[in-house]
Amino acid sequence: MNILRMSKMYMPTLKEDPADAELASHRLLLRAGMMRKNAAGLYTFLPLGMRVLNKVEGIVNEEMDNIGAEQILMPFVQPAEIWHESGRWDDYGPELARVTDRHGVEYCLGPTHEELITSLVRNELRSYKQLPAYLYQTQVKFRDEIRPRFGLMRSREFMMKDGYSFHATQESLQQTYDETSEAYARMCDRMGLEWRAVEADSGQIGGKVTTEFMALAEYGEAEIVHCTCGYAADAEAGECICEVTQYERDAMEKISTPGVHTIEELAEFLGIPNTSCVKALSGKDADGNIVVFFIPGNHELNDIKANRAVAGFELLTDDEMVNAGLFKGSMGPVGLPAGTRIIADVNLKDIPQWAVGANEDGFHYVGARLGEDFQVDGWADLCQVKPGDKCPQCGLPLDGARGIEVSQVFQLGTKYSESMGATFMDEDGTEKPFIMGCYGVGVTRSMAAIVEQHHDENGICWPLSVAPAHVCVIPLTVGDDVVQPAAEKLAKELADLGIEVAIDDRSERAGVKFADADLIGWPLQVVIGKRGLAEGNVEVKLRRTGQKRDVSLDAVAEMIRFAHRVDFKAGAGYGAFDSIFE
């Protein structure tokens, strides 16, 4: 096994935090010399970063191979015609980067590969006897994010593993879906991630059944809710069951509320909790018709749910509200302009009296009676779920956390196969569309998630399974005839034992070497100096905890080998080398 020589490596570390790096993963991957920014959302991975990235990819590929998926590689550039077939060329939006070649033919830079894989197999898989088929690839994707930020969390170009399965029956799809979910759980464990599987929304990919695997992180971009019963969901996708209280009156009464335009102001004015107030939000559907949503006053409208309830829903601008005859901050279901459609959140269905706007600036209604003073055209789950809402499985209050989406599994059904004419001959002799599954892992995003969970004020603390090397030997002097020869001998012994080892043979001060070792995050550091060698010892430091102990130079290689073999095992190996300090 080769020894990594830091004197020969391209690993430009930084002493100061980059000005535009907000998250720990962004900051530390740049400072540790693992990547460099080229433009907004575009990064080059340097040698140390590539070692980590290759290990993450290796874990992903190994788990995919273990469940029978077969690896392929599809083009990054995709023809527009197949996206027109699926209907996503226009629907995907500006994140789809479109290009035209010298012949005037349109293409896109692949953000995902559902269309391309479907166009591939529709000409190759013709019989139920060839099913199921499960293909995957790991390659670069591009999405033209409007605001790329947080380093690898929201970049424009990224590495992703995307897999696709084709089935004759729903039962077959469910089996592959479950097997892949189990494989994704093992991937997270092997990467040393603390994670949760949560209910999610399928977004642009499509399908109705999907699960996200979230790495828990204080600064994760996604909000999740979870319960002790095991239920967990992305806050954008979870069912919202919330507390709503009633402000009872003998009859509907119109009251003057000067200067009151928000739920908080209304609740304070009336001396009631905001759970007794009803919030109104106005918009238009895909045809331009006016729609007003009514939701509990202590919650926010969920955009995804709003579009599910009313296709193409968009909130009105202030000018559009004026033109529609609506009053911002004073809207209610009584006396809306003719033709306005009313959609209310299901949590309001059993509340017979509402405190709402009176559709007149500076006035509100209290005691507006559902079914008497106004009618509702439709009911839907419209709110963003939040901690404290009821668990839809057991009814207990939900807890909240933040997470980073590292992988997701989808049941696509026949969304792509029907639109693209991808069929097979079934056992009964009829042509049927493939039933499809889709499975993605953010490889670069997983790398960032690992750093978010495993770092301290001094740098990265890599789990052994993905560390750029397992042990770093640090000679405090180089070019002498005592310290460096001892360090070289130990590094060779470790490499011969199959342990990944680096040696800091740079002509740098000890303080620089120690700082870089912590910043880069080598799991185990072995420090060799003249004073220790005079007593036949070296100092061993566990990066994760900072624990140190002196060990005999003659015994240290075998001690490391034993700890590596006993503690690493088949998991993430995050506890590897702990036995040295027990």
Structure description:
- This protein has 582 residues and is an alpha+beta fold.
- The protein has 3 domains: 34-239 and 400-452, BirA Bifunctional Protein, domain 2 (2-Layer Sandwich), CATH 3.30.930.10; 253-380, YbaK/aminoacyl-tRNA synthetase-associated domain (YbaK protein), CATH 3.90.960; 459-581, Rossmann fold (3-Layer(aba) Sandwich), CATH 3.40.50.
- The chain contains 15 helices and 32 strands.
- The strands form 8 sheets. Strands 4, 8, 9, 10, 11, 12, 13, 22 and 25 form a 9-stranded mixed β-sheet that branches. A 6-stranded mixed β-sheet has the order 1-29-28-30-31-32, sandwiched between helices.
- A hairpin with a 5-residue loop joins strand 31 and strand 32.
- Helix 1 (24-31) crosses helix 11, helix 2 packs antiparallel against helix 6 (170-190) and helix 2 (47-66) crosses helix 11 (443-453).
- The radius of gyration is 29 Å and the shape is globular.
- 44% of the residues are buried.
Kindly list the characteristics that best describe this protein.
about 575 residues, 3 domains, BirA Bifunctional Protein, domain 2, Rossmann fold, nine-stranded mixed sheet, six-stranded mixed sheet, alpha+beta, 32 strands, globular, YbaK protein
Q: Characterize the biggest β-sheet.
A: 9 strands, mixed
Radius of gyration over C-alpha positions, nearest whole angstrom: 29 Å
| Separate helix tally | 15
Q: Beta-strand level of the residues, as a percent range?
A: 25-35%
Q: How many beta strands in the DSSP annotation?
A: 32
Distance between the termini: 28 Å
How many domains would you count in the coordinates?
Answer: 3
- What is the quaternary state of this protein? single chain
Backbone shape: globular
Averaged pLDDT, please?
A: 94
CATH topology of the largest domain: BirA Bifunctional Protein, domain 2
Poorly predicted runs are none
- CATH class value of the largest domain: Alpha Beta
Q: What is the CATH homology-level superfamily of the largest domain?
A: Bira Bifunctional Protein, Domain 2
Structural class: alpha+beta
Report the CATH architecture of the largest domain.
2-Layer Sandwich
Helix coverage percent of residues? Answer: 25-40%
